[in-house]
Specification:
Blueprint: E1 9-11, H1 15-23, H2 26-40, H3 44-49, E2 56-58, E3 70-74, E4 80-86, E5 89-95
Parallel strand pairs: 1-5
Antiparallel strand pairs: 2-3, 3-4, 4-5
Length: about 110
């Protein structure tokens, strides 16, 4: 009997992520929180397939030591967040000011 895959667990403790989340305008902050609430209800396989989140590997930035790869995901209609997977945790790092910034482009 296979064990059902558990839901994604969120790590929102990165101070940069928190500062950027709290700095969002009210409507955008609510949209970001709704996305985070949605992610908590998904399994990792659902995150990978979700067309709204658009979970994508970032190849233009070298990940920090100890992290296999960085990813971007749509956190609001206009913004993407960067994160990485650590076991069952999604560890969120930043909220980019615009789409290209998530990929290290100018």
């Amino acid at each position: 009997m296979t064990r059902p895959e558990s839901s994604v667990r969120l790590d929102l403790n990165n101070p940069v992520f928190q500062d950027q989340l709290f700095a969002l305008q009210k409507a955008e902050r609510h949209a970001a929180l709704n996305t985070l609430k949605k992610i908590r209800q998904l399994t990792w396989q659902q995150v990978y397939r979700d067309q709204g989140l658009k979970w994508e590997k970032i190849t233009s930035i070298r990940p920090p030591a100890g992290i296999d790869a960085l990813y971007s995901l749509r956190i609001t209609q206009a913004r993407r967040a960067t994160a990485y997977r650590d076991g069952e945790f999604m560890r969120l790092l930043t909220i980019a000011p615009d789409h290209d910034a998530a990929y290290g482009k100018k």
